[in-house]
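Slack export, channel: ligand-projects

TW: morning all. Re-posting the request from yesterday since it got buried. We need the structure predicted with the small molecule present, not the apo form. The ligand is zinc ion; the SMILES is in the block with the sequence. No rush, but it would help planning for next week.
GE: picking it up
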Amino acid sequence: MSDEAEVWTRNKELEQQVRKVAREHEEFAHLRGRLKIAVVFKPKAGKKGMEIANTRAASELICALLEPHEALHYVITIGADAWAILDEDQRAFVLRHEMRHCIGTDPETGKVLVRHHDAEVFFEDLADGLSMTTIKTIVAKARALKVDDRQLRLLESVAEEEAANG
Ligand SMILES: [Zn+2]
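GE: finished. pasting the full token output, ligand included:
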């Protein structure tokens, strides 16, 4: 694990875990075999308006650098400092959340599509068995690192609303 990474590092172990999650969870069936996801650690999670982790479509430049001989579709970037203080369950949740942004390619243009943050992603997070306690723990850990995580704040408010509505 790249917990103490001081430089940006690709993590093939986590890429394997992403493939395993795709194999084991029906909601990620569309990712199996077809869509390749790279996982890269950066030393620190974003400090302002950023996230513990984020997912983007792999640019041509990134593809050329990371995977010149085969198609690469997405890159998940994770702050190693935040990752280091999450436990296994919280890490697994963060990974599945990032995978929910990977929805496939446009059938006409072949363009790689990234689903942006909407309440729907968070409802899926909650349906995933994510508990309020886990959310609050991850939020607290992010705050301790002074990471102002917009998506966590949103997730927290969606979860609170859900809880209030029974
Ligand atoms: Zn997200």
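GE: first-pass observations. The radius of gyration is 16 Å. Strands lie at 9-10, 37-42, 53-57, 74-79, 102-105, 112-114.
TW: perfect, thank you
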